[in-house]
């Protein structure tokens, strides 16, 4: 289902941009080289996340936070990315360095008969794009959400974000889509996503 009056055209655009992301060369990192842990606002995690954000490109930061700004977030904002009321955060490390961050948080007013709906977000450092870090974060995030009873997940991204669109197209081709200017919001059935990723 596409929640947009130009639904057919929008779905075609998602497919076209997703193709570009799916065809990008995958460099690969050994699965056991990526350590993913649940993270809270403790000193080590705060330092690691601040370093990850500082070493990410301005384009990646602007795409992640949908703010139109390329500024590196300050300490208070970094803390908010790890201290998530009703939700949680993950850090991915390779060789002891933080190279990825994921978080989830309840969507206000979106409690349904199927349980809570949550929004998820992901950032991978530029030099670790297409190396499997995002996939590991998503797998751990999916397991965590199922553990706490979440069935519906919302993802908001820029329409130009080929990497996210490729993931949605591959793992959640039946997701609903709503467009708001340059942003796309997908609502995913988590059980279906996890089932597809396990094959």
TrEMBL record:
What Gene3D superfamilies does this protein map onto? Answer: 3.40.630.30
- SUPFAM superfamilies with a match to the protein in the record: Acyl-CoA N-acyltransferases (Nat) (SSF55729)
Q: Which CDD domains match?
A: NAT_SF
Q: Where is the N-acetyltransferase domain?
A: 34-189
Q: Which InterPro entries match?
A: Acyl_CoA_acyltransferase (IPR016181), GNAT_dom (IPR000182)
| Pfam families in the cross-refs | Acetyltransf_1 (PF00583)
The protein's name is N-acetyltransferase domain-containing protein
């Amino acid at each position: 289902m596409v929640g947009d009056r130009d639904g057919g055209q929008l779905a075609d655009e998602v497919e076209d941009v997703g193709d570009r992301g799916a065809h990008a060369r995958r460099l690969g990192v050994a699965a056991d080289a990526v350590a993913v842990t649940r993270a809270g606002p403790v000193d080590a995690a705060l330092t690691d996340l601040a370093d990850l954000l500082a070493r990410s490109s301005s384009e990646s930061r602007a795409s992640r936070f949908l703010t139109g700004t390329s500024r590196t977030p300050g300490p208070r904002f970094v803390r908010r990315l790890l201290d998530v009321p009703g939700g949680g955060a993950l850090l991915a490390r390779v060789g002891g360095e933080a190279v990825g961050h994921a978080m989830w948080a309840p969507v206000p007013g979106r409690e349904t008969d199927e349980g809570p709906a949550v929004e998820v977000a992901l950032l991978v450092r530029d030099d670790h794009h297409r190396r499997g870090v995002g996939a590991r974060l998503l797998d751990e995030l999916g397991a965590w959400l199922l553990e706490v009873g979440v069935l519906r997940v919302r993802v908001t991204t820029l329409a130009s974000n080929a990497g996210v669109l490729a993931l949605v197209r591959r793992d959640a081709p039946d997701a609903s889509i709503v467009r708001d200017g340059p942003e796309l919001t997908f609502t995913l059935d988590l059980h279906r996503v996890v089932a597809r990723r396990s094959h």
